[in-house]
Each structure stands twice: as C-alpha cells, then as structure tokens.
C-alpha cells in the first residue's frame, strides 16, 4: 500500500462544519493531538496550547508547533506558572502529559510515579479542571500503559489517584490500552488512552446510567465503537471501589507486604469511585500497514543513513542474544544479565517496533531500527519515515536536527488513534444534540 494512499485515503472526507469544539492542548509536543483531531474534523478548534521543555534553552517542539499551526493561543512557558484564568474556556482538554516516570525504558522499581519530577504535572491538569468555573465537558488523555501498574510498591496507585481525582471533579471515565498496530497502523506502540465525560454532558449521564458496564466496554462506549474489542478469556468484569480521600488513596491503595498485582486491566470504566475493569483483545479485519509501506525510495535517503561496514559487527552484537555475569554497584552482589535476540534487520512485512527517543544518530544501538532497503543496503530510518510511523505529515518536524527530530517522534503518539477517537466523539455529540432537540420539541408540543 502506498504511503500517501494510506494517510489520505484512510481519513475520508472532513466532516461538514456544524458546531465548533473548542480544544485546549496541554503538553502539546509537536502537536500530535492537533494533527489527529484536525484530520477527524475541521470542527475541532484549538484555542489554547502549551508546550514547555524545562532545563533547556532550545524549545524545538514548541518552535515546530508554532511553525505548523501559528502562535495564536500558544504558550511556550511553564504550565505551573500560568494562572487558570488566562486559559480560555474550552470544551475538550487533551494531552499526552509527560510520562518519563512510567516509561517502558525504565524499570518499575526506578519509576517515581506521581511523586516524580514529571509525574507532578498531572496536578496541573487537576488544577485547571478544579479551578475553571466551567470545566471542560470532555477529556482525552494519553500515557504509557505502564501507568496502570505504577509504582512497583503499590501497583496501580498512580492511576487510582488520577481516576479518584477525576471522579471527585465530576467526571465519568473510560480507558483502553491500545496498540496502534492492532488496528492497521504502522507502529507497534501501546499506550493507555482515557476519555472523561463531565456529569453535565449527555455522554457523562449515559455512562453513569449504563445498566451493564460490560455492554459499555464492549459495545456502547466510544472506545468500543472506535476500536472494537471483545473480552479476553472467560474472566468476568472485576468491580471495586477506590476509597478514601486522595491522601488516603496515595498511602493505602493496593499496599501489601508482598509483591502486589495491579487491579487495573487494559480496559475499564469509572463511575463515581466505582471501577469496572477487564482484559480485552482487539477485533479488526481491515488492512494492515507494514514497515515497508512507510519507507522512502532509496534515492531520497541520504548516504549517511547507511550502516558502515566497520560498524556491522557491533550492530549485530547489540541486536543479538546475551547472557553474562554482572555486579550490582550498590550491593556488590553478582547477578546474571540476559536478553534475547532482536530481528536484524527489522522485518519489513510487519508494523514497526515502538520508536524510542534515542532513535536518532549514527551510533550503533540495540533499540534503533535498521532496515534493508530495495538496493540491499542496511540503513537507519530517516526523520520522514519516523514521522510516518506516527502518522504525521511528511516533514512535520523540519527545522530541527535529524537527531532531535527522532527524539520528538519518540515522544509523540500515533495520530491515527486520536483521529478515530475524535470522529467517534463527534458522532456521539451530534447524536446527543439531536436527541436533546427532539426532547425540547416534544416538551414544547405538550405545552
């Protein structure tokens, strides 16, 4: 499948303009949510965006955001220093809030979770929702799926705090862990997305009143429509309550003397403080996009991306299986370190592995992608190919160095997921608006 046909043909016609949905994009990066929502419909109108990378002079992500979308409503400053009253009213708040503390690149024992330097940024979302006189009707948030298990000592505590805080602010929530490749997209990237609906909204009332949580998860919810799934195995829904104020949740949730297991599965809903959760598996019968589909023609790839023959042995070693004795520096105890072999070069007939922030640069690495192109040469992926794996337009990150462009794509999301969620959210909003008009007309007729 040609890349242009995949990107352009999969989105369909842009929805006709009806009512505008005002969007605030926090932790915007290079604008992944904006790209996805823009492809879903021209009715999504970003009225506020914020992107700030602390401890660095260069603000590459913010500069690219402004270059692509303009500077109207954009703030390149610490969100914690921005008063809530300076943030315009909005209908939908979106954000892939910084997730280094939950990253798959770190072990759970190292993950600081909500208490870490990045984790505290969750409270900026909470602050905006709490202080807004008219809080946003809808939320669309994204994080690494390890969030459901963080931290190691109290598995699931961080997600429980987030859910409890949203419930206390009047939101009903549904979440799903989505691997983009399971739904035909070009990268095997697993992330947890959660949607929040304020109780004043039609969607919020519908979720709060749903008679069967399982029906919502598998048939009636926004995720169920946008990303069909069925229950994985015979295990039933597992309900439980998140009890206590937020300080008590932080101190006590899932605390045990032994190694705990997170109560959160890959799909679930929150109503009040009540949680229903289960494991699901994707249901998808459409076309799949493979790594080969996003590759540029050999003549478009600079020679500097080829793997030098002198480096080939090191690349093979790093990609290969290993087992060796090592010593823990802190304790002085010896242990055996093992890791399995990786496919080398990367398979072209499958979706790509997850892009990581260290994808750029010529230094050999276990985690960087290496492909064999049509000329038979081994080479790294270009910035354009990395953009395509996240379903961004070609050249979206132009203006930064190749290494920084790779870093920015390692931090980004697969925009196709946001696009599908945006389309389904609009479908529900329009259905709710139509139903409200019918109720109003019937009431007027009776009077």
**Number of E-state strands:** 16
Strand content: 15-25%
Q: Under the CATH scheme, which architecture of the largest domain would be assigned?
A: 3-Layer(aba) Sandwich
Catalogue the unreliable spans: 8-17, 100-119
Q: Structural class, from helix and strand content?
A: alpha/beta
What percentage of residues falls in helices of 4 or more residues? 25-40%
**Strand order in the sheet with the most strands:** 3-2-1-4-5-7-6-10-11-9
Present the secondary structure layout.
Elements: H1 3-9, E1 21-26, H2 32-40, E2 44-50, H3 60-69, E3 74-75, E4 92-95, H4 122-131, E5 138-144, H5 157-168, E6 171-179, E7 190-198, H6 202-209, H7 213-220, H8 222-226, E8 229-231, E9 238-241, H9 246-252, E10 267-271, E11 274-278, E12 280-282, H10 312-319, E13 322-327, E14 334-339, E15 370-372, E16 378-380, H11 383-389, H12 402-411, H13 415-446
Parallel strand pairs: 1-2, 1-4, 2-3, 4-5
Antiparallel strand pairs: 5-7, 6-7, 6-10, 8-12, 9-11, 10-11, 13-14, 15-16
Helix pairs in contact: 2-13, 5-9
Question: Short description, anyone?
Answer:
The chain has about 450 residues and is of the alpha/beta class.
Can you describe this structure?
The chain is of the alpha/beta class. It has helices at residues 3-9, 32-40, 60-69, 122-131, 157-168, 202-209, 213-220, 222-226, 246-252, 312-319, 383-389, 402-411, 415-446; strands at residues 21-26, 44-50, 74-75, 92-95, 138-144, 171-179, 190-198, 229-231, 238-241, 267-271, 274-278, 280-282, 322-327, 334-339, 370-372, 378-380. The strands form four sheets. Strands 3-2-1-4-5-7-6-10-11-9 form a ten-stranded mixed beta sheet, sandwiched between helices. The chain has a two-stranded antiparallel ribbon with strand order 8-12. Strands 13-14 form a two-stranded antiparallel sheet. Helix 3 links the parallel strand 2 (44-50) and strand 3. The longest helix has 32 residues, at 415-446. It is globular and about 75 Å long. The protein starts with a helix and ends with a helix. 42% of the residues are buried.
């Amino acid at each position: 499948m040609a890349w242009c046909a995949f990107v352009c043909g999969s989105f369909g016609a842009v929805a006709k303009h009806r009512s505008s949905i005002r969007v605030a994009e926090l932790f915007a990066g290079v604008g992944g949510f904006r790209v996805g929502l823009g492809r879903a419909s021209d009715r999504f109108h970003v009225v506020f965006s914020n992107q700030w990378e602390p401890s660095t002079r260069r603000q590459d992500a913010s500069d690219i955001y402004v270059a692509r979308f303009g500077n109207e409503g954009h703030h390149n400053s610490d969100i914690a220093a921005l008063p809530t009253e300076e943030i315009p009213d909005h209908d939908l708040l979106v954000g892939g809030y910084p997730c280094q503390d939950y990253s798959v690149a770190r072990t759970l024992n190292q993950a600081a979770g909500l208490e870490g330097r990045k984790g505290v940024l969750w409270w900026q979302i909470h602050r905006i929702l709490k202080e807004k006189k008219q809080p946003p009707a809808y939320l669309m948030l994204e994080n690494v799926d390890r969030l459901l298990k963080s931290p190691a000592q109290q598995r699931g505590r961080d997600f429980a705090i987030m859910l409890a805080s949203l419930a206390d602010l009047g939101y009903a929530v549904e979440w799903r862990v989505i691997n983009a490749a399971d739904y035909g997209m070009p990268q095997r990237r697993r992330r947890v997305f959660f949607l929040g609906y304020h109780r004043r909204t039609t969607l919020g009332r519908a979720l709060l009143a749903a008679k069967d949580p399982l029906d919502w998860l598998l048939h009636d919810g926004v995720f169920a429509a946008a990303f069909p799934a069925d229950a994985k195995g015979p295990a039933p829904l597992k309900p439980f309550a998140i009890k206590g104020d937020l300080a008590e949740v932080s101190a006590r949730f899932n605390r045990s003397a032994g190694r705990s297991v997170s109560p959160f599965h890959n799909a679930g809903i929150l109503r009040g403080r009540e949680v229903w959760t289960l494991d699901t598996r994707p249901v998808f019968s459409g076309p799949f996009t493979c790594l080969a589909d996003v590759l540029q023609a050999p003549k478009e790839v600079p020679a500097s991306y080829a793997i030098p023959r002198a480096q080939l042995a090191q690349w093979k070693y790093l990609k290969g299986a290993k087992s060796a004795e090592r010593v823990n520096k802190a304790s002085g105890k010896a242990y055996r370190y093992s890791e399995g072999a990786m496919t080398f070069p990367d398979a072209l007939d499958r979706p790509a592995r997850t892009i990581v922030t260290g994808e750029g640069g010529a230094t050999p690495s276990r985690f960087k992608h290496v492909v064999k192109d049509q000329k038979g040469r081994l080479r790294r992926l270009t910035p354009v190919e990395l953009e395509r794996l996240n379903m961004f337009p070609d050249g979206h990150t132009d203006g930064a160095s190749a290494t920084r462009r790779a870093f920015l794509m390692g931090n980004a999301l697969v925009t196709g997921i946001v696009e599908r969620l945006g389309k389904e959210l609009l479908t529900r909003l329009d259905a709710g608006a139509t139903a409200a008009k019918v109720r109003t007309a019937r009431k007027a007729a009776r009077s």
